[in-house]
Amino acid sequence: MEEISNPLSSNLPTTTTPLPVPGAADAINPLTSSPSRRITGPAKWPTIDGPLGLSHQDSVAYARRFFNFGFFCLPFLWAVNCFYFWPVLRHPNSHNSHPLLRRYVVGSAIGFLLFAVILSSWSVTFMIGGNQLFGPVWDKLVMYNVAERYGLTELM
Hints:
Blueprint: H1 56-69, H2 76-84, H3 86-90, H4 99-134, H5 138-141, H6 146-149
């Protein structure tokens, strides 16, 4: 009889790794070794879209534009700047080659936080205070009676 060889078998040396023993202190199980799967290493890319994003030089130019345009009554661009360059905010020491990039992004974060605090305090002041807080000046501050004030209701 002729011997048939198995095409899956090979004469190459094989290495086996022993399975970890349950309860062993040195066994590393990637599913149970840490409760969070967060990556704690430095960021490799300055933008959230990774290798598809901008180079380091272009990142500084875009961050500068977002930061400067935020001063021209567009403070939500500061929020966009913080979101887009989130790896720079998240990993402070990973982009030491471009300290200007971090400066613009942190400046945008501070600017947006200040804007949000001012806007929220203004809104809460008008919602809670109203006529009791401002007295007779309240009628000049509110905008819902502008048509009556200027006599525009007679036109309709």
